[in-house]
Specification:
The chain has 745 residues and is an alpha/beta fold. It contains 25 helices and 15 strands. Helix 2 (48-69) packs parallel to helix 8 and helix 8 (220-242) packs antiparallel against helix 9 (244-253). The protein starts with a helix and ends with a helix.
Length: 745
């Protein structure tokens, strides 16, 4: 008789407390009011969870004390486990009560479940292994066991909370589940461990007297979350005591409907409705059954019968031996699938289509968000209006805008207009949306400019709106007012404001664009690709002149470790670099990354430019261009150490023989093949001298024209004074300069 004492106490306590909770709820106005997503039509008390938890506490504590007084004390290990379960359950219960009274965010309730499930794990209630026929067939590592336990507890608590939408539904399913667990524990000689599940079973039945349709009270979150938590932790404990099948799987089958409904709910919200998984809606299986024409009670009974059948299949599978048990569970698939299919919760074609649509949408949105983040970094390097406008045009192009027009008001009343149109003709105006975005020009907001944009919908108006939000973020964080502040700050650091500029038009700094950009190349988008930047020498002087010729160009390089004192020739232009920039020790040991340089240069994306100029002595000419782009290579020389001078380089570096020498020769062999192949993708070669034209002809079999680098060609003035006893040699100290021959002479 003592075995069933917790059940009787739990039933009596819950049945006795329920009228009190109903009276308190009505007295204090704590009622669940009808809403669009809810089924009930009358305000109903929702503190039934208080009676349930009171029944659990009464049944567990009362039985423990009674057995102690009768000289049959409960095992101390069981008491420790129950103490941890009830303490953590009490915390879940209190959060649920607060939610019933005031409302608590879903995220906070999730955090509560994570914390309380971790508490249970800390008490030793962990899914450490799964057993079958008395043998361990899955042994979890420590951290996997904790994770699996916490995931299971959260899944059960959330699924019971979701299914609590009809009178008597959640209570009936949980009564079945906890009853199965209690019976399995009792029949396997674990009467002490069955005390808490039995108390919960009795408390649920006592509550159901007041919750069956038409309900006098709801259990609320204080009930659904608490009973879900207590049941889930009890199954984990049962798995340890009586094995996986009896202690875990069979009780879990009783709530297979809520678990499957929770999975479909998350899928529906995330993929089909594209909303937060925490947002409430009216699409659960019980709602679907009501929409199909079932009455309130019929829907509850139908789901309860299916759950009983699922448990029956589990017990039937128990008659099989060993692994054959799993074969019996296969019957659950058509059972659950058929129920959800009939209810309308599962529509395979629609679900697959929603999954593909969400996946494609996420890919597109990720591409646009990445583009926006990249543009924000580029805007950080903008220092004048010309660069600002170029960056805006690049942003509009990368976000698939059709048109962009910025109107800047002038004090004289003659507004300045800047227009840009996407060269991609496939982005049609008919499949687009228009919007006007204000741009702050002065601070405080005495004047605003306007950006009128036309955005291609790209098969989805939602995508266009998201891109509009991203572009608005660019205009907000990098407005013209912010640009003016940046210009003033930079100017104050270099020179004092002269009288001639003191009375300057306040809009003038915003419209000061390098006049060289207005030449014949102004309509072209130009990229200059240099090998790398770490010093200011001859090749960098060529880049300096290229920037002067094409001031609206963008710069690319493998890496940029140029000292701040030598960066003046870049005109504050940002440099887009490759992944080598972020590799360890690249600033000092970049030569060690020679094998990666061909791969790295190919990762630089210059696909949006009309003209690509590579300043190449090594790999810059290997940048990938398309058939509609013009690629001009200003070649200082084919890589000397890969071609005719490679023996000299290897010997001077001590790599003539040995494993390192063989590796170096293999790398240079690969580099020569890559060098010739990429030379074929260059449209025009420009050489720095006639000697280099012969080298290009010999190695690449390509013709080239000579444009001498920017060096002084005036005759040198000989020093007529007394000569001293030395010669002066100027140049890089590299082997191919043959400085040693000059010294020897």
């Amino acid at each position: 008789m003592l075995s069933y004492l917790p059940f009787l106490i739990g039933l009596a306590v819950a049945a006795a407390v329920m009228p009190l909770t109903i009276w308190v709820s009505r007295r204090l106005g704590m009622l669940d009011k009808p809403e669009a997503r809810k089924v009930h039509t009358q305000p109903t008390p929702r503190l039934g969870g208080v009676a349930i938890f009171a029944g659990v506490l009464g049944g567990t504590i009362g039985t423990t004390v009674t057995k102690y007084l009768l000289g049959e004390p409960i095992d101390w290990d069981v008491i420790e486990k129950f103490s941890a379960i009830l303490a953590a359950g009490a915390f879940v219960f209190l959060v649920g009560v607060v939610d019933d009274l005031r409302s608590v965010s879903s995220r906070f309730k999730l955090i509560t479940l994570i914390a309380t499930s971790a508490t249970a794990c800390g008490a030793g209630i962990v899914l450490s292994r799964f057993t079958l026929a008395g043998e361990v067939f899955i042994q979890f590592p420590f951290w996997v066991g904790w994770f699996a336990t916490m995931l299971w507890v959260i899944a059960v608590a959330v699924s019971i909370n979701f299914i609590d939408g009809l009178d008597g539904l959640a209570g009936s399913l949980m009564t079945l589940a906890v009853g199965v667990l209690s019976i399995n524990l009792l029949t396997n000689g674990q009467a002490d461990a069955a005390i808490l599940p039995l108390a919960l079973t009795g408390a649920l039945i006592g509550f159901l007297f007041f919750n069956w349709h038409p309900a006098k009270s709801f259990m609320g979150d204080s009930g659904s979350l608490t009973i879900g938590f207590l049941f889930a932790v009890s199954t984990v404990y049962g798995n340890t005591l009586i094995g996986t099948k009896r202690g875990f799987i069979l009780p879990a089958l009783a709530i297979s409907i809520p678990l499957a409904d929770a999975v479909l709910t998350f899928f529906r919200r995330h993929y089909q409705q594209r909303r937060s998984i925490f947002s409430a809606e009216r699409g659960h299986i019980h709602h679907r059954l009501l929409d199909r024409g079932l009455t309130h009670r019929s829907a509850v009974v139908a789901l309860l019968v299916v759950s009983v059948i699922a448990v029956g299949i589990g017990y039937y599978s128990y008659t099989f031996d060993g692994w054959a048990t799993l074969g019996g569970f296969a019957l659950l698939v058509p059972l659950l699938w058929g129920v959800f299919q009939l209810a309308g919760s599962v529509r395979t074609t629609e679900m697959l289509q929603a999954f593909r649509s969400k996946r494609d949408s996420d890919r597109v949105n990720h591409r646009y968000r990445s583009a926006c983040e990249d543009l924000l970094l580029q805007f950080d390097q903008v220092t004048n209006f010309g660069q600002w406008w170029d960056a805006m045009c690049r942003g509009a192009e990368r976000l698939d805008f059709v048109k962009l027009t910025i109107t800047i008001p002038q004090p004289q009343g003659d507004d300045t207009k800047l227009d840009w149109e996407n060269p991609n003709s496939s982005l049609g105006i008919k499949d687009s949306i228009q919007a006007a975005i204000p741009i702050l020009v002065t601070t405080p907001a005495a004047a605003t400019a306007t950006a009128n944009v036309t955005i291609a919908m790209e098969k989805s108006p939602e995508s266009a709106v998201q891109r509009l939000q991203l572009f608005t973020r660019l205009l907000t964080e990098h407005s013209l007012a912010n640009l003016r502040r940046k210009e003033k700050k930079a100017k104050s650091k270099t020179l004092a404001l002269s009288p001639s500029t003191a009375d300057e038009d306040p809009y003038a700094p915003l419209l000061r664009v390098d006049k060289a950009a207005d030449g014949q190349f102004a309509p072209l988008k130009i990229a200059i690709v240099h090998d790398f930047l770490y010093t200011y020498a001859g090749a960098e002087r060529v880049v300096e002149q290229l920037i002067a010729a094409f001031p609206h160009c963008d710069l690319f390089a493998l890496f940029d470790f140029l000292p701040e004192s030598q960066r003046g020739f870049l005109r504050d232009k940002p440099v887009t670099t490759s992944f080598i920039q972020r590799l360890p020790f690249a600033s000092r040991k970049h030569r060690a990354y020679l094998p990666l340089m061909p791969l790295a240069i190919e990762q630089l994306d210059v696909s949006r430019y009309d003209l690509v100029i590579s300043s190449s002595a090594l790999v810059a000419k290997g940048v990938i261009t398309g058939p509609d782009q013009l690629h001009v290579c200003y070649c200082y020389s084919p890589a000397r150490y890969a071609w005719d001078l490679h023996h000299q380089y290897l010997n001077s570096a001590g790599l003539g023989f040995g494993p390192k020498g063989m590796l170096a020769r293999a790398i240079l062999h690969y580099l020569r093949i890559w060098d010739v192949r990429t030379a074929n993708s260059v449209d025009h070669f420009i050489a720095i001298s006639k000697f280099i034209t012969r080298r290009i002809k010999k190695i690449y079999r390509r013709r080239s024209v000579v444009i001498y680098p920017p060096v002084s060609v005036d005759p040198a003035n000989l020093n007529s004074e007394q000569r001293e006893g030395f010669y002066l040699v100027v140049g890089r100290m590299v082997p191919y300069k043959l400085t040693d021959l000059i010294v020897a002479a």
